Amino acid sequence: MSNLNGAYYGPAVPPPKSYHRPSRSSGCGCCCGCLFSLIFKIIITIVIIVGIAVFLFWLIVRPNKVKVNVTEATLTQFNYTTNNTLYYNLSLNITIRNPNKRLGIYYDYIEAQPFYHDARFDLMTLEPFYQGHKTTNELNAAFKGQHVIVLGADQISELDKEKISGVYDIEVKIYLKIRFKLGVLKTGKMKPNIDCDLKVPLTTSNNGNSIDGSAFQTTKCDWGF
């Protein structure tokens, strides 16, 4: 067959096929977006429900802060010797007032620790109890003995000043495990602490009067969590 000007008269050649790979992320993007939107809506709903529940609880119960005061403090011995030993005799009366009309309080654990310029020198555990609505309970804590504590130069300087004045700065920390009771409902255990910064006059053992003539002043304690 003769070449007719280079033209080809055979069967038609089909056009080349173009392959389009489907995107794998298109379906996932839609599903993931829907999932995240659903989770976000659920979280917002839960936050709103919890907020409404807390507001209703406050509106019904109207909780008030429990009041703690040290009403009496007696210090008959407070001697720090050259061998870093502190000899002490400290007694405290502590009142706890629950002003709430509907909330009772379980004091499951009570531990009192006295400190002198951040140095702890004793501890004692007090009897647990239940406190009803609008009631006041009195706790008695007595610390007596000797304890080795190492005081720095600044602490020694403060101690010398307090010996002259006859009034000592003593901090008492009370560590608690408590539960609240509303009707038949009880909360889980909480672990707050109470800080009492006291100025306690040293009293003489024979007549019970303080060395400088001052008396202990009732001191309000602060709550912490």
Automatic annotation (TrEMBL):
GO biological process: defense response to other organism
Protein topology in the membrane: Single-pass membrane protein
Gene Ontology CC: plasma membrane; plasmodesma
UniProt superkingdom: Eukaryota
Name of the protein: Putative Late embryogenesis abundant protein, LEA-14
InterPro entries per the UniProt record, alphabetical: LEA_2, NDR1-like
Organism: Lupinus albus (White lupine)
Pfam family of the protein (one): LEA_2
Annotated compartments: Membrane
Main location: membrane
Keyword annotations of the record: Membrane, Transmembrane, Transmembrane helix
Domain Late embryogenesis abundant protein LEA-2 subgroup: 94-191
